[in-house]
Structure formats: structure tokens, C-alpha cells
């Protein structure tokens, strides 16, 4: 079960996330948990695997915004790194960053179960 403490231990800036939800913990947890069903993760993965840097950039940019709004810092920071790499060169090899992002995503999803 997702809790504020679990998110905080994961590295999320829960104080900022809660502030953005006007202190409503239930809302914050519901929004953070809804990231599990965010299809942008799947679309990003598919674009990455297809070598479509333009689509991957579009998807990671959108994910970055959602993760940033919820202050899910570890995933947000990695999304920012990938976003900047793709902005500079859509054909760059970012497989190491992708592996790190996937690991962080899986860790986050386990918190949400």
C-alpha cells in the first residue's frame, strides 16, 4: 500500500507534493498511485525500443511533467536526464539511462501495489 512515508523513503519530495495537493494526503497518494496506469511509460518504452527518438522525446517530456508535479523525485530526475539527452540528439544511445529509469519505475510501482 502506498504511503507518504514509503514515497519519502523512495526519495520523493513529499512535502512539495503534498503542498501541490493543498495538504490533502489522500489526493496526493491517489494521484501518485495513478502513475502506475499512466500509459506514457508504455509509449515511451515502445518508442525507445523502436528507435523512434522523436516519439520517445515527446513521451518522456510528458512523463517528466507529471512526475515533477507529484514530486516523485527519483523518476523525475532520471526523466530530466533522458529528456535533455534526447533534446540534444534524438539518435543518441541512452540505454544506460533507460535501464536506470526502468529500475526506478519498477521500484516505484512496487510501492504502489
Descriptive key words:
single chain; 113 residues; mainly alpha
- Number-wise, the strands total 0
Overall tally of domains: 1
Poorly predicted regions are none
Figure out the total of helices: 7
Helical/strand content category: mainly alpha
Order of helix and strand elements from N to C terminus = HHHHHHH
Cα-to-Cα separation, first versus last residue: 6 Å
Q: Can you give the helix content as a percent range?
A: over 70%
Instruction: Characterize the biggest β-sheet.
Output: none
Overall mean confidence score, pLDDT: 94
DSSP strand content: under 5%
What this model shows, in words?
The chain has 113 residues and is an all-alpha fold. It has one domain (4-112). 76% of the residues lie in helices and 0% in strands. It is built from 7 helices and no strands. It has helices spanning 4-10, 14-20, 25-34, 40-50, 53-69, 73-88, 95-112. Helix 4 runs antiparallel to helix 5, helix 5 packs antiparallel against helix 6 and helix 6 packs antiparallel against helix 7 (95-112). The chain is elongated, with a radius of gyration of 14 Å. The model has no long low-confidence stretch (mean pLDDT 94).
TL;DR?
The chain is mainly alpha-helical and 113 residues long. The chain has helices at residues 4-10, 14-20, 25-34, 40-50, 53-69, 73-88, 95-112.
